[in-house]
Amino acid sequence: MTRRQPMNNYFLHNKCCRKWIVESGKPGMRSIFSFPLFFTLTALIFAFIVSAAVAQTRASVTVSPVSDIPYSPVVLIVDGKVIEAQSLQFMRGQQVMVWLRDLENLGWGKAYSDKSGEVVFKGNGVTLSFTKGSGLAKVNSLSVKLPVDTYTRDAKLMVPLSFVAKALGYECEISYKPVATIKTHIRPAATSEANSMEGKIIYAGKGMAGIKVRAVDKDFNVVDDTVTGTSGSYKFDNLPTGEYAAFVYTKDNPAYFNRVSEAAILNKGNIAHLKPISLGRILAPKIPKPGGRAKVSGGSVLLEWTKCDAAVSYELTIARMNSEQPFLSLASKEPKAHIPAEKLKHGQAYEAQVSALDANGDYVGGTVGTGGEPWQFVFE
Predict the structure, then answer these.
(1) CA nearest 166: which of 124, 132, 220?
(2) Residue 324's pLDDT is what?
(3) Surface-to-core class of residue 115, CB atoms within 10 Å of its CB (0-12 exposed, 13-18 middle, 19+ buried)
(4) Is the Cα dihedral 372, 30, 203, 317 positive or negative?
(5) Could you tell me whether strands 222-227 and 313-320 are parallel, antiparallel, or unpaired per DSSP bridges?
(6) CA distance 35 to 17
(7) Whose CA is closest to 65, among 266, 262, 274, 272?
(8) Closest by alpha carbon to 61, among 1, 5, 21, 115?
(9) Mean pLDDT across the chain
């Protein structure tokens, strides 16, 4: 399985079972631990709640981002029950994305692809239609703007869970709840009332200078911004009492995907030391261009993308459009690959995804993620 772009892990609280759960976003690994292992964490938690309008018990998912990984599974609780939905991902803007097939497995409705290329979901007397890479959807043929664009990951169409839930008549809301922390060894209170928050931005294990970092509150309002120094370090001083995170935004740093730190609760003049934020470089398709046509040359088709300086190898997957799984996966030492022509079908549309890996096999860049562009093409 190709390594995917890392994203923030999530610390989860199941209110009904009174059990703390954490799921690792590291590719190929998933673990669940009991509450005592994480009892001392002081991160802010984001609560995402989905429930049926007719249900008596409100369902809830509580998540808290951790900085190392940008994509991660999310535990989903519907009407008080933990639901297995491996496709769930937490995106910027506090949106949870989901594969429609997982909602079909919940019994919410039926998903299928129609002749026009749209993915249709029918449930509760409502028909929803989605298009890959689009910010619009149809609700019973009426065009509606989505809170975040759809995209494909591992050939699965990902759509905003909140949009689907509300369209089907279920209750959905986002709120924030603090982690309860008990300390038996009390430290003296800081004498200064000026709060500070500091950390480091790294890429391929090294500090990155010249990266713009924003200090944002729990609603992602910008409170302050700064630029990293030569070692990749940054610091925000004189922050009011409140809950904050460090945010690396693609529009400020066009070469890199979005990243956000864990949340910090600042009060009584304390200093929050955040975990290093690891960047992922955005790779751009070169041949063919997104939406272009791939041609045969010497019995093969060339796929080429921009080079990632920190990468020692690349992993490429190709899937047929509207297909659930990649049919071709290969590794390359160079930012290009030659695909045997017999593997492709003339007139067929495909989607390619690239992940760049360093010497340790860790993700350092790719074509998939916020700020990236879907690499879709047609084989002539």
Answers:
(1) 124
(2) 65
(3) exposed
(4) negative
(5) unpaired
(6) 11
(7) 262
(8) 21
(9) 76
- 255-286 confidence digits (pLDDT tens): 998 888 999 999 988 899 999 999 989 998 99
Residue 355 has pLDDT above 60, yes or no: yes
Q: Cα separations (Å) of 158 from 1, 35, 102, 372?
A: 19, 31, 10, 15
Report whether 246 contacts 214 (CB < 8 A): yes
State the chain's maximal CA–CA distance in angstroms. Answer: 73
Phi/psi of residue 39, nearest 5 degrees: -60, -30
Is it the case that residue 151 has pLDDT exceeding 60?
yes
pTM > 0.70: yes or no: no
Report d(CA 315, CA 328) in Å as an integer.
Answer: 11
The neighbouring-strand residues paired with 171 are 51
Letter string b/e over residues 198-212, b meaning 16 or more CB atoms within 10 A of that residue's CB: bbbbbbbeebbeebb
Helix (H, G, I), strand (E, B) or coil at 41: coil
Q: What is the pLDDT of residues 62-80, one digit of tens each?
A: 333 433 333 444 556 677 6
Structural contact between residues 2 and 355, judged by C-beta atoms closer than 8 angstroms: yes
Q: What are phi and psi of 341, to 5 degrees?
A: -60, -30
* Contact of 273 with 261, CB cutoff 8 Å: no
| Nearest residue to 359 via CA among 190, 224, 204, 207 | 204
Distance CA(282)–CA(267), nearest Å, equals: 36
Q: For the residues 32-41, what does the mean pLDDT come to?
A: 37
**Which residue from 196, 191, 189 is spatially nearest to 238, judged by alpha carbons?**
196
Q: How far apart are CA 225 and CA 213, in angstroms?
A: 6
Q: What is the pLDDT of residues 110-135, one digit of tens each?
A: 988 887 788 999 988 889 999 988 88
Q: Are 194 and 269 a contacting pair, CB within 8 Å?
A: yes
Contact 77, 62 (CB under 8 A): no
- What residues form DSSP beta bridges with 332? 314
Among 168-177, 229-238, 354-363, the range with the most confident prediction by mean pLDDT is 229-238
pLDDT in tens, 183-242: 555 555 444 458 999 999 999 889 999 999 999 998 889 999 999 999 999 999 999 999
For residue 159, the number of C-alpha atoms closer than 13 Å in the C-beta half-sphere is 29
Task: Please give the C-alpha separations between residue 101 and each of 86, 127, 135, 192, in angstroms, as whole numbers.
Answer: 11, 15, 20, 53
